[in-house]
Amino acid sequence: MSLYQGLALLPGTGRHMAHERAVQRLLGEKLAVLLGCPFLGLYQADEHAASQCYFLPEDTLVGDQSALGIAGPEDFFGGQVGQAFMATKAISHPLPEGARCMPKGWSQALGEQIASVTLPGFSVFHTEDARQAGLRLLRDGPLRLKPVNATAGRGQQVVRTLGELEAALASLDEQALEAGGLVLEENLQQPTTYSVGQIQVAGTTLSYYGTQQLTRDNAGQPVYGGSSLTLVRGDYLRLMSLDLPRDVRLAVQQARIFELAAMDAYPSIRASRRNYDVAQGLNAMGRPRSGVLEQSWRIGGASPAEIFALAAFIEQPELQQLQASTHEFYGAGLPPAGAICLYEGEGSELGPISKYVKVSQA
Asked: From start to end of the chain, where are the E strands?
């Protein structure tokens, strides 16, 4: 018998497109089956407040959620933080020395503590701080400007010269910058991006590593195109017991260090879904670099693979390892053999987009 009277979707405050919400609904229906409870659709306070619900939030939860009946990460799929900035890319780096603007509750020590497992970079909340950070990073080569709330690689910009930096800073909205922040980070050449993560649902823990693929959207811009994951039953130590390639082992180790440090610096963080992007490539001087780019404590691009894999592990108690992948196509694209269609449509302002998931035995 389920602990929950239903699974409800929690809409977020961020901007989400039709194809994202369609996939989230499908995944909510899948999770409800695994939890043994009905799928309720969008949470309605007047209808569902008296029910003990399991939640699938659209965004990372911010602040106390006890009014919804959420006691801990066992009651929702995703993450919860004390303040909004903790859920963004901003915590991956320290502020520049003498920063003019700092969010309330900011841990400068975290950025310095995880410097060995991230790329050289800074987080800023003021234009002059961004200029100072940019000038410092440009001494060693091109840098990448990253809006802290953007997803799928959208909105990022490579800056190679002082002129390009000044032009980029001139386009910033100072109020938006102070409210959300901006990351400036060393730019890598031809990077490979690994995904490292873990989910904990219905008493089952899965951990994984994988790689991300890029595709081109309907405007020809390179964006996230899917993830290919290797998942195991158990925690990160179980994952590390596999015969991992050296680069993968490094990515998993860096993700674990990042996670432990972040949750120590910000004890309000609670998550049943963790995902870390780790980039490995060459810097401007041809030296190899590896570092965690960002964390995700909310439903994300790899979540269809996570949840469909979870179903296989729950249905087959003897199963210890498998492969799962997500695939995104803009315009015309043939699905991989054996894949399950998650979405096919115009994709709101993005134009035609298709999404698939595939699960297979390792």
From this structure: 6-10, 39-42, 53-57, 61-62, 79-81, 121-124, 143-147, 157-159, 182-186, 189-201, 204-216, 222-233, 270-271, 273-282, 288-296, 321-330, 340-345, 353-361
